[in-house]
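Forgive a beginner's question, but would it be possible to get a protein, spelled out as residues, together with the matching C-alpha cells, please?
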Amino acid sequence: MQPTTKKKDINEELYKRAYECIAGGQLGNFKQGAGDRPTFIERYDDSGPYYYDYDGNKYYDFCLSYGPSILGGNNDALRKALVDQINQGYTKDFKLVQIEAAEKIKSVVKGIDLLRFTLTGTEANMQVMRVARAYTRKNMIVKFDAHYNGATDPLLGGVVADPANPIAQNAVDANDAYNGFTSTEGRAKHALDDMYILPWNDLGALQNLLERYGDDIAGILMEPWPVNIHGCKPEPGYLESMRELCTRHNVVMIFDEILTGFRLHIGGASEYFGVQPDLWTFSKALGGGFPVSAYGGKREFMDTVSRCEVLASGTFAGYPIGCAAIISVIDQLSANDCEILRRIERLGTMLSDGFKKAAERQNVPLVMQGFPGAIIPVFTQKEKIINNRDAIESADMDAYWYFASRMNKLGIANLQRYCVGADHKEKDIEYAVGVAEEVFAEIADKRHLGH
C-alpha cells in the first residue's frame, strides 16, 4: 500500500528551495529527522482526512496539523465562522467575540472563573508559571520527565529531583529520546535551576520532594494524560493524591491541557478524571487548526493578572479570528451530545485495537497507549509503560521511530502519535491498519535478520 505513484519530483525541488531560505528546510525541529523531507501539501480533500502533495501523492491525515485540526483540514462551519469574522473588519482589537469565546470555554470546563488568551501553548504555560509564583510568593516549579510543556528555556530541562543530590540536567542522554529532542544549545546558563523534574506516576518521589522542599515550590505543571513519546496514563489515584498534596503544601496544581483539551473530553481531562486543578492551559484543538491558546482558573489565582501583578501581554492575544475559531470548535464538538467526540472515541478505539491485532499477527510486541483521540504505539513486552524511565528500560525506540517514518512514507501521516478527527471514517481506519501490518511485517523481518 503506497501513496499514488510519483509522476513528478516537485516535492524534492520545493525542499531545495526551502532549504535555501528556511533554516534546515523545515518549520520545526520536531518535524526534522536525518534525511527526512517535509511533505509539501498542494491541496486538502473536501471528502475526508486526505491531502495531496505536489507530486500527486495521497496521504491519510492522522497528524491533523500535529494535533489542532480536530475538525479536519477543510471544515465548512469553521471556515464560515472565520470568513464572517474577517468580513466584520480585520482587526485585533476588543470585540464581542472575545467575550463569547471566553464564555464558551467556561461553559464546558468546570472550575474556570477567569481566563486570558495567548497565541501558543508555550506562551500559556509561561504565563501560568508566573501566576503560580505570584500567588504563592514561592519560586520553584515541578514538571515531569518527558512531558512537553513548551519551548521556553526553563521548560526544556531542570533539576533532577533527587532531594539528596539535586543536579540540573543540561546534557543529552543518548538513551533518552525525549531528552535528545529537547536538549538545545543556547539555553540561558541558569534557566534550568528553577525547575524540578520528577518521574511521572511516582507518588513517592512527589511526596518526598514536597515534604523536603514544599516551602519553595510554587506550582506543579503536568500533562494530565501525556501524549508525547509514550502516552502514559496516570495510575489510579495518582492525580487525586497529587491534588491533596498540592492543597496541603500550598502548591498550585496546573493542568497543561494543550493536547487533552476538548480531545479527551469536552470538559477536558479535569472532567474526565474528576480532578480539578487550580489553573489550566489550552491550545491546539481549541482553535481547530488556527493559532490560539488560553489559560485560566479559579478567581483567587487569576486575580494576580486582573490586578496587573503578573504581566500578561501580547499584541495578538485574543485576536478576533482565533476567538471565532474557538466558538465554532466548541459548538461543533458539543453538538448532539458531543456526537463528534463519541465518534472519535469509537474510531480511535478501532484504530488502536487494529494496530494491536496486526502487530500480534506479525509477532511484534506492542502496547497501544494514549487515548482514542491521540494514540501512541509503544514497542515493548510489558503490558503498559508508566513513565519515561520505564520506556528507556523496556521499550524499543528504534522500532518506534522506524514505524512512524515508514507509515509516513506509505501515506499514513503521523507525528509518532495518531490523532483521529471529525472526518475520519471506518474505511480510513481499516486502510491505516492494513498499512501498519505491512510495516509490522518489515519490523519482524528486520529482527529475524538481526538488524
